[in-house]
C-alpha cells in the first residue's frame, strides 16, 4: 500500500499448502467416517476444497451447526471455517487426493511459477502408490453456502435498525489506493475504541468520540440490526463481524436501495455464520441481534484491504457495556507501554475535543474546490486581458504615430 501502487494491486501468494506442511497426508481406515475441519487461514486467497472419489457432507459453518448437506466441493474465503463428514470407502486398492485450489480470479496477475492447485494424499494403504483418477473440480465448483440451513432454526425477523455500507476503492488524498465504507477509509484512533466506550461516560453515545475516520455506528441494546453491504468493486470480498454470528437474509445484483428487485430473500431459517462473501458488483444483506454489548469490528478479511481502511466499528449498547464490563489493569498498562493513551476519546482527549485525532485521508474531491475555482477565475481573467491587449495593438496604427513624431521633429 503505497503511492507507487495506484491501482491497489494485492500481493499474489507464492505458494500454498495444507495442514502447515508441503508434504501433508492423511490415513483413512476403511468404513470409518471422518470429520474434517476446514479453515482458510490465508491473508488473501480463497480456496475450493474437494476429495477425489468422495462426497462431502457439510455439518458446520463458522461454528454454527448445519443440516447435513451433501456436496462434491466447498468454497472457503479467507477466515471462513467449515466442517465436513467424509465416509471412508471399504476398498483399499486405491488411494485418493484431496485438493485445495486457489480462486485465481481474485488475482490481478497469476505468476508463471505459482501452483494454484494444491493436493495432498489420503492413504487407504501406504504400501502401494495406486491413486484414483484426478477429479479436481478446480474453479468449476457450484457450491453456494447460502443454501445451507442451520440445525437450530431461527427465522428472520424484521429489523429495528438498518445500516447501509457501500464500499469501493479509490486513490485518496494521501496518494494511496484505499478501501472505504461510505466514503470514509478507516484510520486507527489514538485510543482503542473499547477504552473510549468505557472511559467517556455519556459521550460514549456519540459516534464522533470514536474518531472521524473509524466509521463508528451506535447500536441500541437488543435491536435487530440489518446491514446492507453494497460492493461497487470488481472483485469478491469476505466480510467478517466480530462478536456475532449473523443471518444472511438477502443477496442480489447491483446496489440495494430498498427497491432493487433483483434481491433474493432467504428469510426461512437463513444461513448463519460470521464471515460472508459479497460478490463483485453485488449486494448482501445480513441481520443480527445486538445482544453482545461492546465494540465489534466489521471488516474485509483480505489483509491488504483491511490495512487500506475497509472496516467499520459497531459500538453496541454503550451504557449496558459500561455497567457490565471492566478491563484488567494489564490492558491499560499495555496501552501505556505502547505509547497509546488508555483513556479518552479517539484523540486521547475528553468529550468532543478531537484535536489530533487521525483524520484528513479522504476521497479526492470530484470537481473544483474553492481554491481551484479561484485559480481558474484568475487564469480566465489573465487570458482575457492578454486577448484584449492583442486586439488593441492590432487596431493601432504604429506608422501614423511614427509620422507624427517625425513631423513634430521637423517643425522644431
From TrEMBL:
Residues 18-124, 187-319 form the Plastocyanin-like domain. One of its GO terms (biological process) is reductive iron assimilation. PROSITE patterns: MULTICOPPER_OXIDASE1, MULTICOPPER_OXIDASE2. One of its GO terms (molecular function) is ferroxidase activity. It comes from the Eukaryota. The chain crosses the membrane at residues 374-394. Pfam families: Cu-oxidase, Cu-oxidase_2. Keywords: Membrane, Metal-binding, Oxidoreductase, Signal, Transmembrane, Transmembrane helix. Belongs to the multicopper oxidase family. PANTHER family: IRON TRANSPORT MULTICOPPER OXIDASE FET3 (PTHR11709:SF361), MULTI-COPPER OXIDASE (PTHR11709). This is Ferroxidase fet3. The gene is FET3.
